[in-house]
Amino acid sequence: MDGPVIRHRATPTAAVRVDHHSAVQLAAVTARGVARDCGLPGALPDQAAVIASELASNLDKHASDGTLYIQPTPLGAGVEILAADRGPGMPELERCLTDGYTTAGTLGVGLGAVSRMATHFTIRTGTDAGGGTWACARLTPPGDRETALQDVGSVCLAVEGEEDCGDARAVVQTGETRTAAVLDGLGHGSRAAEAAQVALRSFLADPGRPLPDLLTAMNRALRRTRGAAVGLLRLRPESADYCGIGNVRALTLSHTGVHHRLTGQPGVVGWSMPTPRTHGFPVPPGATVVLYSDGIDCRWAREPSPSLLRLPPSLLSAALAHGHRRLRDDATVLASRSPQTPRLP
């Protein structure tokens, strides 16, 4: 695999539930902190805080069950702020992005300001029963717009009320090939987090190896931990390989529905791992490949709504984490289109 290597900083996602107006300030503080941790220069951390504040304020005024998800951008340098809700949707989305348009008696500059300040901003609203709106604002250093346009998204959440996340994920791009991992330490809490981080370090040590070799190395590394379920994906233009042990699922989504449903082989990486097998499958242009741990309820894939099928990877990750998360388990979803397919619209 030739070309520059771009890595994902695999930190858990910070979630700010917007159930009171005070959450607007918390969202701003959280976004500023994540942006600083990402090394964004100058006034960019303050801009991240303004973007988060505007999105949280919009949720507070107009939505129900709204949450911001704040984290580094999936690839390269930058910060990503995702908003998801189960509100009524936006029947006049284009007007909502215009300065001066408001339904709450305010100045009506929120979403317009976000669109101007972010390096890249995308938003979709549900058109089927249930509504909902999903937005993604990415802020990157000057001259690095390509990072903001990467068509990959992920969300990684700890059990509510716990600091340690027993899941982890990472994605590495080399040229036109992406290699992604979703890692689920058995159970949850500190010991699960330890197992996930050991697996993560093993993966990042040499992510370009054949997928079965990556799993074999993880199996050795995890022998002194409680073990983990692991799903690995190698995504190229028009095709992909999946190799997994345990309950990390993979599938392909297109506008016509769900394809290539795959689940890892029975076993535990670090304890009772069978000889890993790789499954190859085609990836049509514009399709999205999804990896997710069992903290995401798999029933979402039985009959996904048309709105869900049309979401780009960043918004799809937020929608699945927000709408189909099991609250008693760590939850991770990672979605990507092939590197050479069209960028986020």
From TrEMBL:
Entries under Pfam families matching the protein: HATPase_c, SpoIIE
PPM-type phosphatase domain: residues covered: 149-338
Protein name: SpoIIE family protein phosphatase
